[in-house]
Amino acid sequence: MSIQYVLEIIGTFSFAISGALAVRDQKHQDWFSATFTAFISSIGGGTLRDILLDSYPLVWVRDIAIIYAIVAGVITTFVFYRYLIRLRKTLFFFDTWGIALFTIVGTEKALHLGVRPEIAAIMGVFSAVMGGVIRDVMTNEIPIIYRKEVYATACLAGACCYLLLDKVGVERNTAFIAASLVIIVLRILAVRYQWSVPRFFR
Amino acid sequence: MSIQYVLEIIGTFSFAISGALAVRDQKHQDWFSATFTAFISSIGGGTLRDILLDSYPLVWVRDIAIIYAIVAGVITTFVFYRYLIRLRKTLFFFDTWGIALFTIVGTEKALHLGVRPEIAAIMGVFSAVMGGVIRDVMTNEIPIIYRKEVYATACLAGACCYLLLDKVGVERNTAFIAASLVIIVLRILAVRYQWSVPRFFR
Amino acid sequence: MSIQYVLEIIGTFSFAISGALAVRDQKHQDWFSATFTAFISSIGGGTLRDILLDSYPLVWVRDIAIIYAIVAGVITTFVFYRYLIRLRKTLFFFDTWGIALFTIVGTEKALHLGVRPEIAAIMGVFSAVMGGVIRDVMTNEIPIIYRKEVYATACLAGACCYLLLDKVGVERNTAFIAASLVIIVLRILAVRYQWSVPRFFR
């Protein structure tokens, strides 16, 4: 059991928590919709990436631990939600950690499947953000892509950083950690100093 | 021509009717949008299942009868819609029959493709409800997953029942009928006695 | 480099422009969301078609020129947008040209993959309109399918025309041009004389 695998399970678990919490604002929410939303949020991005790259079987179809990590996230949310919503900062770090991890894992996987770096970067960003986009579209929220936060852009920066370090021959684990830190630090700074991506139309 | 095939065609036909009826509440509706919506509602769930399981060619790409069943459903809706909307109960039974059938057929197909029972249950539920979810997202409705009815949960119960009966060695046709009945009876009782799935957040 | 390839690049470029322009009405828009929306609008339809037909690798995964055409479209929109929005007619012609091209290329590709003509027509229409539908769903717009314009219906007419000409043995380039013209002329006439597809429910 590699460290990366453990990290992926933790990422899935924390995405499931943020997914389950997202049904709070729905007019009607129940156990099914919370579990369903947690599931879509966690596996949506990676599933889209693997479908686009024709990489089968899908991770969660092959490895039941992913499903159990999601169920654990849902139960954790149910038991501790009063506590969790007071822990906004903790949640923010969990989510930020999740997108950092998913971006680099996704970029790496795409590279290994032999696509060009530009495509690998797109796949990394998709892995991290598309689960949330699908969740937002389904729950009639404005997708995170169209909100003010620096979110997907931080992922893109991290993916590009990883590709650059990989290109110049930096050892894989170092590149992994450095690129993840780029995403995490960028996002924290962006929230702290209210950075935003330059407007497209003035 | 097996009985199961005939049932699938009937399920597709009845899903097409409920899909075409869904455009009534759109600001603008025409022949194209009605047919398109009927098509998405009917084939959406099964198509998603087959893409997730890498099972190609897709049923409706291979078997043109599916397309004709959808067209027949659209024309039936056009000709009889005044009559159909008075027949709410009939429609409810058609739809309930459709989701029961699609759930068990989907679960079975996934099992045959060699996935674990947990994944097969997810695929069964997806087959039954994701067509409707995609339709709702496209027509700006709140997806059926986030409404009060016991809908997807009944499908999940039926899928689990099928898997259980299959595991203990019950003969396939018996398991099929018993699990379908679980879904149909659960949904009828839920509507009759206004059951709902327990809330996730109190 | 065939003429068809050049046309596809132009089609992608013009779809990227209309995608980037679509973020103007979003509450928040930035460089990332404009590029993302342009990307989804341009490749969404063809990607869905190829996933449904199990045709891998996807065009834009294999051919980086597609990505560069999208980036060029985004930059063009940024530089010239004040000019572009005054050029409504020019944009309309670009978009109409785009859907005509994508419809026939999509129909042709599906035919070559060996599906029946009915399925090929569906794939042609999907290639042309589903990128826009996904974009509209993501940006909380009413999908173009549910608007009054004759849009997808013109594509369907063009696809059927191509299939008919192909069936009676008309030479490929002639069929391509004739069918594209059907779509372009139909759409122009529809806008000019305010044609609309007959309502489904009276």
Description of the molecule:
Three copies of one chain form a homotrimer. Chain A is built from eight helices and no strands. Helix content of chain A is 75%, strand content 0%. By secondary structure, chain A is mainly α. The first copy, chain A, has helices at 3-21, 31-52, 59-62, 64-86, 88-112, 117-138, 152-167, 172-192. The interface between B and C is medium-sized, with 30 and 27 residues.
Concise structural overview:
3 copies of one chain form a homotrimer. By secondary structure, chain A is mainly alpha-helical. Chain A has 8 helices and no strands.
List keywords for this structure.
homotrimer, 202 residues, mainly alpha, 8 helices, Glycine transporter domain-containing protein (chains A, B, C), Gly_transporter (chains A, B, C)
